[in-house]
Amino acid sequence: ARQLDGQVQALTAALIDGDEVVEQLRSHPKFLTNAQWEYLQQLTDRVYKDASHRLALRFPQLTPADSQLCMLIRLHFSNAQIATLIAVSPASVSQQKFRLKKRMMQADGRLFADGETLDTVVCQV
Q1: What contacts 113, CB < 8 A, 6 or more positions away?
Q2: Who wins on pLDDT, 38 or 22?
Q3: What CA–CA distance (Å, rounded) separates 101 from 84?
């Protein structure tokens, strides 16, 4: 089972990392247009089987900005890259992640009890 899980993770990473738009945004991050947001959501949903829908069902209190942040986390963008993509400082990204974690904990008090990171939880939804 672990070997299969590792193979699935490698395949999804290859699909994401091999995507031309993601590759370009990682190497030359810039503020995202609405069309780019839509493309990234479609990519995330295609690769991770409707991840945005599952996220919204599990955490209905999340704002659209929270959902976008989750998508960027799921696509493995760094805090610095996320900051550029949403036109804020890296410190603001850290604050947004902290607030997102609090909202998720309000919805499910068992989250983060075992020391999971926000990135881990987002990637498991």
Answers
A1: none
A2: 38
A3: 21
